[in-house]
Amino acid sequence: MAATPAAEAVLVQSVEMPDTAIKVEGYDFNKGVDHNGLLDSFLSSGFQATNFGLAVEEIQRLRAWKLSDEPIKEDEDDEFKDQAAREKVKTTVFLGYTSNMASCGVRETIRYLCQHKMVDCIVTTAGGVEEDFIKCLAPTYLGTRNPLHPQAASGFELDGKALRLQGLNRIGNMLVPNDNYVKFEAWLMPILKKMHDEQEATGEFWTPSRMIRRLGQEIDDPSSIYYWCYKNDIPVFSPALTDGSIGDMLFFHSFNRAGFVLDLVGDIRAINTLAMKARHTAAIIIGGGVVKHHIMNANLMRNGADHAVLINTGQEYDGSDSGARPDEAISWGKIKHTCKPVKVYGEASIIFPLLVAQTFAKDGPRAPAGAK
User: Fold this and answer.
1) Range list of H helices, the chain
2) Which end of the chain is more exposed for a tag (fewer CB within 10 A), N or C?
3) Distance, first Cα to last Cα, the chain
4) Between the CA atoms of 100, 103, 109 and 114, what dihedral angle is there, to the nearest 10 degrees?
5) Dihedral pair phi/psi, residue 168, rounded to 5°
6) What mean pLDDT, rounded, does the chain reach?
7) 3-class DSSP assignment, residue 368
8) Does residue 299 contact residue 281 with C-beta atoms inside 8 Å?
């Protein structure tokens, strides 16, 4: 019987798939519980699991790169003509994250990266700074499984009015007592006074990055992200540092004593110069908004980052920078067109620790960028 027009329409003849094409296949639990094997299987699982696998490969590439991989140019600096010196020059890694990452348990993952100097520069929000310090002074709690709220399911649904009357601030399904901010104020205000004294004595203004470095020194707590940034000389840029509790403290301080200055121009020079001098860069960005754009814009100064991994839930249809796919950044020159950028659409409190487990933590520390 001859094929009908309907059959011909439905059963359009397929092209032959190449031998190298990856077959979709997930993890077989008959092999037992092998978490490494499970995460490795994500690459061939499809959907965002595959994007996760691609992100693992991109991070492996950026960690493997050395200047010695590149041919020596005629105008190369004398110090980098030596092959041994070129072996030591690694990718400069920019890590960006929004404040909720310091609020939740991802803080400990970020702290690990800074403790072992696996990143070279951080960009975060005001909350991303202060929530780390506040946790050194008092804990954040889950909104569920506590006697104050026995009916809570996950904690996301807790009533805002009731929480306000209890002096509890909700971050998603987590609770931060107002007392935590009282303790933060008691810790920060004397430091602000000392910093103001030093500014008047030296005539040198503070930048947000210098202020964060000083606070990392003052906290003197190995559980802190910024303690390790201070110890390992990792610059932390926060162009919106006044947009949070730190800004409140600066506001209150200004009524008692005017004249304290945070120099934003000094920091934009510092981050842009860092990107321009880097021989090879990578952007790993959790979330969007100012942290994403600040890193991307710094890399524009060198005609784009060489590697990029983005993790967020934003969608591109509203035209926001937060939701934009990496290809949009390529059009602006913020990511190199030769790059193989990856965006994982997912919630970072799940994605990022798994990503670090399969890359940075598995491989262990590497020599810092530019090490000699």
Assistant:
1) 5-10, 35-41, 47-64, 83-87, 99-103, 106-115, 126-137, 160-166, 178-202, 208-219, 225-231, 245-256, 264-277, 290-300, 326-332, 348-358, 360-363
2) N
3) 76
4) 90
5) -120, 130
6) 95
7) coil
8) yes
User: Following DSSP, what letter does each residue of 8-49 receive, concatenated?
Assistant: HHHSPPPPPPPTTSPPP----GGG---HHHHHHHGGGT-HHH
- Which is catalytic among the residues 334, 336, 343, 362? 334
Active site residue 334: yes
Write down the pLDDT at residue 1.
53
- The CA distance from 123 to 218, in Å, is 20
Number of other residues whose CB lies within 10 A of the CB of residue 81: 11
Is this model's pTM higher than 0.85 or not?
A: yes
The residues that bridge with 94 in the sheet, in sequence order, are 121, 283
Among residues 66, 120, 118, which one has the least CA distance to residue 363? 118
Band (81; pLDDT cuts 50, 70, 90)? confident
Interval 152-178: pLDDT, tens:
899 999 999 999 999 999 999 999 999
Distance CA 124, CA 285 (A): 10
Residues 6+ apart with CB under 8 A from 101: 107, 110, 124, 128, 286, 287, 348, 349, 352
Residue with tokens 């077989």: 28
User: Average pLDDT of 129-133?
Assistant: 98
Residue type, 8: E
Torsion angle defined by CA atoms of residues 223, 228, 230 and 235, in that order, rounded to the nearest 10 degrees: -120
